[in-house]
Amino acid sequence: YAMIYYQWFVENDRYFPFLRYQRFNGARKIENNAPLIETDEWEFGSEWQPNKSLELTFAYAISKRIVQST
Predict the structure, then answer these.
(1) Is residue 45 within 8 Å of 51, Cβ to Cβ?
(2) Angle at Cα 28 formed by Cα 5 and Cα 32, nearest 5°?
(3) With contact defined as beta carbons under 8 Å apart, do 64 and 41 qualify?
């Protein structure tokens, strides 16, 4: 997978916007007979840290999963 993120400060607040992409093509081991699966996934969001003891994160994921039956 690949991930891009950045950190910046606004007064005492800290922000971490991010973008992540993941691709997988292989067997899904947690199911019987381990079917093949192809996954494309995008996730983006941001973390906001208004002080050192509190972090709030929001994220949105877009996934495409194709299970190939044998």
Answers:
(1) no
(2) 155
(3) yes
The reported pTM is 0.73
Instruction: Using alpha carbons, select from 66, 22, 14 the residue that is nearest to residue 44.
Output: 22
CA–CA dist 42, 14 (Å, integer): 24
Pick the closest to residue 48 from 60, 56, 40, 36 (CA basis).
Answer: 56
Please give the Cα distance from 60 to 64 (Å, whole number). Answer: 14
What does the pLDDT look like over 20-43, one tens digit per residue?
999 988 877 666 777 788 889 999
User: How is residue 28 written in tokens?
Assistant: 């899904």
Beta bridge partners of 11: none
Rounded Cα–Cα distance for residues 65 and 38 (Å): 6
